Each structure stands twice: as C-alpha cells, then as structure tokens.
Amino acid sequence: MTRRDAANDGGPSDRILEAALGGDLPPEQLERLLADPNDRARYEEALRVLRAVDALPRPEPRPGLRRGLMARIDQEDDRRARGFFFLGRTAWWGRPFTLGAGFAVAAAGILLLVTRPLEVPDSALARIERLELAADRELYENLEVLEHLDVLDDLELIASLPEESG
Amino acid sequence: MARFVETRDRKVFTMLFDKYERPILAHVRRFVRDPALAEELVQEVFVRVYTTKRYAPDHRFKTWLYRVATNVCLNELRRPHHGHFHDSLDAPARAPELPSPGAAPDAALEGDELAARVAAALERLPPKQRAAFLMVRHDGMSHEEIAAALETSVSAVKSLIHRALESLRRAIEVDRDPEAQSPRSTGRAVP
After folding, report:
1. Smallest Cα–Cα separation from A97: which of A81, A108, A86?
2. Smallest Cα–Cα separation from B158: which of B138, B132, B126, B140?
3. Could you tell me the pTM of the whole model?
4. What is the pLDDT along chain B (191 residues), one digit of tens a residue?
5. Which residues of chain A lie closer than 8 angstroms to B51, CB-CB?
6. Do A45 and B42 touch (CB under 8 A)?
7. CA distance B62 to B6
8. What is chain B's alpha carbon radius of gyration, rounded to the nearest angstrom?
9. Which of A50, A122, B28, B30 is the most exposed place for a label (fewest CB within 10 A)?
C-alpha cells in the first residue's frame, strides 16, 4: 500500500491529517506521531494548506442583492395582501377570526338542533277531533246539495234510488 | 427567529439578513460558481425564511438557515441544466484553469501562488466535500452543526473534511512535482 492509499485507512497518515485539522493532540503525542521526517513534512504541508484556505477571500455581496431581496419580499407581501383578508400569514387554525367564526357557526347549529319543534305522537283526543270535523264537513256539503235540488223531481228521484247505492 | 415567525416584523428580518447575508452567500458559492446565480439563490433562501411557517427551534437558527441554503443549492444542482456541470454532488467538479507552475522568486509570490493553487484545488472538490470543509474552516461550525445543516451524520462530515484536506494536500504536492501523478490524471499533454 502506498502512502497515498493509506490516507483514509485510519493509520498514521490519517492521524497526521486529524492532528493538523484538530490540533488537540498533546505535544508529546504529536512529537511521537511526527518522528518520521516524511510524516512531519506531510503534517507541515497540511498546515500550510489549511493556513492558505483560511486566508482565502470570502465572496462579497453586490449592492443589488439586498435591493433584489427586498423587492421580492414586497412582492410576497402584495401577493398575500391580495388574498382573502383572513387568509393571511398563519395557518387557518391559528387565526382568531377563523376560530371565532367557526365556533359561532357550530353554536348556531347546536342551538337549531336543540330548539327544533318535536313531532308529538298523535293522541286519541286529536284523532276524535279530526273525525268530528270531517263529519261536520260532510253534513254541510250534503245540506248544500239539497238546497240546490229541483225539489219535487229530485226528491222523487232520490226516493226511487235503491237503498244500497246511497 | 421564533419571534420573527410570530410577528413577521420586517425589522427583525432585516437584522437576520444583515447578520447572515455574507456567510450564506459564501455557503451558496461553495455549490454554485456563477456569482449571479449564487445571489439569486441567496435571495431564494431569505424569501423562504420570510415566508416560513414551519420554523421549529430544535436547532440553532444558524444551523436551520444553512440547511435551508443547502437544500436550495442542491435543488438547483439537480435541475437538468446543471447536469453537464456536476455529474454528482459527491463527484469532483470540472477542473478550472490552474495558474502556471512557474518558479516563484520570493516568498510573497510563493504565498500568492499557493493560495491560487489551493483555491483551484478547492474548486475541483465535490460540492459537499468543499462545503463541509469550508463550513468548519471559514464559518467555524462544529461537526454536529455541519451534520445537521447538510442532513448527514457526524462521521460522514468528518470523512468529508478529511478527504477534502487530503485532496488539497495531494493537489499541492502534484503541482509541485508533476511527475508524481500520471499524465491522464493531470490532464496535461504528454510530449
């Protein structure tokens, strides 16, 4: 195995890089680890690379970045404002107005259910009253018919009718 | 941040943007080379912050923000028009032009040359390796924070950082001693 192949095998090469990255080895352990001049050179090279990385310039934002973002945020606010007045920024279950309206509708429904007139079962007395009314009505209609008859002829006709057809 | 999600106060949002604008831009540039596209993605990250309804403070805000940024970048890299640019998030990126390996007459020039070589070697790293490595070196983040931001394990983060440093060290070594690497891997013409 070459030295390069050994880089990720958890062997001494690995520990050298870890030492360079972490830097938390006690000095005496580090010295033991770097006893070999090749290992020491590798360690020092890793440190140089890390120093060079740390010194690299960071990208600077252009002024347009902030302006562009704020324009997008404004658009986002406009988009929201165009929606229903209560369909705003938070979830529907978090909006007091929606909650209040929901409770009101539910309460009205329950009230309607509770106060609905109940269907009372037909009582015997009511049935008798209805039958009496019906009998009275029949009597009245018969009287009306009799009033409009041609008295003599029709009375004779009625008298001649058989008893069962009546 | 939790206060911002409750109040949607523009001032709080502006404060968050001022604090994290540069680190997030740097983080996005680790995935995307094009500066204009990177700034567009930074805007996308902060618009997501502004419109989020699901911020759960199980991690620090910084970690959560980096995770949002990472996801925005990875989504961008997975889009079809990026196919030619990065074959895989774990594969090395296309190698940029290296400075010519001419002799450095003095120490300052040698330092500049080393910086240029390190920068070029960083560009050749796979995006996730580069991101993990620079998150620890430039942003001072812990392995745990990086793991949460990249949605991976702590051991995977350690491995990414380790491999990144080894790749950089080898790249510098090869640049100094071109015969140490085969002509195919260096991409240089054989006379």
Report:
1. A86
2. B132
3. 0.62
4. 666 666 677 888 898 899 999 999 999 999 998 999 999 999 999 999 888 877 766 678 889 899 999 999 999 988 876 654 444 455 555 444 444 444 344 445 466 788 888 999 999 999 999 999 999 999 999 999 999 999 999 999 999 999 999 899 888 776 665 555 444 443 333 33
5. 76
6. no
7. 18
8. 19
9. A122
Contact A67/B at CB under 8 A? no
H or E, element range at A140? helix A124-147
**B72 in Cβ contact with B46 (< 8 Å):** no
Cite the DSSP H helix spans in chain B: 2-7, 10-29, 35-51, 61-78, 107-124, 127-137, 143-150, 154-176, 183-186
Q: What is the distance of C-alpha B107 from the center of its chain?
A: 29
Neighbour tally for B42: CB within 10 Å: 29
The token pair at B167 is 């790749």
**Shortest Cα–Cα distance, B51 to chain A (Å):** 8
Which DSSP category does B62 fall into? H
Among residues 70-99 of chain A, which lie with CB inside 8 Å of chain B? 72-73, 76, 89-91
